[in-house]
Amino acid sequence: MTRAAKLGAGRAHRRSVVLVFGESDHDRKSIGQLAAGLRPDFAGKVEARRAPLVLIRNARPEKARSNAEDIAKLVTQESAARDVVAVLAHEDCDATEPAHVAIAAKIERALAAAECPGAHVAVTPAWEIEAWWLLFPDAVKEVVAGWRAPDDWLGKDVGQVRNAKETLTTALRRTRGGREVRDYHEADSIEIARHVVRLTLLASFADDHRKTPGKGVAVTRTRSASFGAFRTKILALPRVNGREG
After folding, report:
1. Which of 71, 72, 199, 207 is the most buried (most CB within 10 A)?
2. Which pLDDT score is estimated for 177?
3. 205 and 89: one domain?
């Protein structure tokens, strides 16, 4: 057996893992849930890593290189025992689309230059991950009883929503009567992502748009190119092996 064949055989018997790096624990976990929702074969194989942080978007070249090398070092250590299928690296754009395109390219180039094992997927929501939740108001309203469904952006381009976190927070508040309920917290992203998957809402998104029943029209198309890019990249990743040990 050739050396390449031996390596391939050894890899086939190792447990697969998808590693998620990001800005915060709730971002990492919510992205992991979305990835597993898009790819049922990833179930139980997506793991978040608290460090190193990505922090490549606005970094000077030498710092971006150093940050990517720190991630690559940890992933290389992990790959000694497991098959690292992919590395998901999250950074919010803090800008509207199409900013996600250049930011994702910078992150993925840095990981490639650092020879990081596995496929590289930059996860770059525009403006920030809360803009993605505006695609799924039916999931958001499930998190806290009394929140209104933030459906004001259905039929629009949520990639153009500035300061998405503040926008979502305001949209969830009921304006007439009703009891007071707490505001949105960033940690709510984990539950929102869980409901997106539980309600099978990911199936309604394709070609950079989510299709939902419209008010007065047959179908409403809500756009997010940054979510579309995430979906496309996740679906393109290789299948993982079934070994759980």
Report:
1. 71
2. 61
3. no
72 is written with which tokens?
A: 């690559």
Same domain, 46 and 134: no
Please indicate, yes or no, if residue 205 is contained in any of the structural domains. Answer: yes
Q: Is residue 139 part of a domain?
A: yes
> Tokens standing for 227?
């979510």
Which pairing describes strands 16-21 and 209-212: parallel, antiparallel, or unpaired?
unpaired
The whole-number pLDDT of residue 175 equals 60
Side-chain-side CA neighbours of residue 229 (13 Å): 22
Give the chain's domain count. Answer: 2
**Structural contact between residues 220 and 155, judged by C-beta atoms closer than 8 angstroms:** yes
CA distance to 11, 89, 234, 244, per residue, from 108 (Å): 24, 8, 14, 28
- DSSP character at residue 217: S
The range of the structural domain enclosing residue 74 comes to 8-127+228-236
CA–CA–CA angle 230, 198, 96 (5° rounding): 30
pLDDT at 136: 98
**Structure confidence by residue, pLDDT tens digits, 61-92:** 888 899 999 999 999 999 999 999 999 999 99
User: What is the value of pTM for the model shown?
Assistant: 0.91
Exposure string over 109-147, b if 16+ CB within 10 A, otherwise e: ebbeebebbbbbbbbbbbbbbbbbbbbbbbbbbbbeeeb
